Amino acid sequence: MNSKYTGGDNIKTRIAYYDNLRVLAIFGIIAIHVFQLWHHGEKVNGMYIYMFSEIVRYAVPIFLMLSGALLLNRDIDLNNFLRHKLTRITYPFIFYLIIAFALSIFTDYEFSSNILSYNWYFWLIFGVYLSVPIINKFIQHASIREIEYFLVVFILAAIFYQFVLYYNIDNFFNLNFFAAPIGFLVLGYYLSVKDFKIDSRKLIALMLLVFVFATSMKMISTGAIMPKSFALNYEATQTAVLNSWVDVSIFVILQAGSLFVIFKNLNFTGFRKAVVSISNLSYGMYLINSIVMFYITPFFTALPRNGFEICIVIVLMSIFVFFVSWAIVWVLSKIPIVGKYCS
What we know:
mainly alpha; about 350 residues
């Protein structure tokens, strides 16, 4: 069995690139939420906002890949695993849900529906944790070649799904929630143990090219396909390359996979205390960031937002929400009793 670190505060025993990836992923999720917030109300710039949001579509897949890297190929006691993991995500979910509804009373429930819509990831990861003991048995008894076979099927399913969307027959062949969570889970484990036997600098350069290529393809394809839908309702619909939330696009697989390999080979250990803090509090940051967005959005909407300026505003807002969310959850984590439920 491959022994892996699964949590805790001992910086010396942590796997640094896991923490670095988690920081990158939570920033990506917050940025996606900010992009979503802006593109809905932007008749002129909405399409371009959505195009630039493709840069951070790696976020949820990386979280799933980290779960695979940390949880698979371990000896799991079913009862202890489910009790620990499910309560670990459920208590903070309920905690922030109560806060959201309490705050919504003072805003005439103006943002309660948005809060709920952003919490879809809870239900996804809940289902993933239920499936981990089953997938874990496969990983424990599978050879690398068999795992690679599984990943080939996952990638082919992703490519097939893009054609299904293109021909508008996804109601008959909807592979989204079947393929994406499990596929990314196994991909994360595979990349965490795979030795590519290539010089790390060359591998990083190659993976950087893969990331740029995949991101460019998503941005170009989104811009080429989406204008018609924006002419009708200024909101993106599903396309052959873009699918909201958990994207099973081959390009997102390349995005997330290349970033995972890059961070694995970077050996970056700077700002460890801050990185570990954000990593530990990332789930709470995910749950609270939409509340933070609600209160600070009026200040950012007053800034210039013509053409490329709007993308700069979105980046600044994403950074601001990121640090404010971290600060709030950090303060909550220091409060007795409350701290154990905030992240």
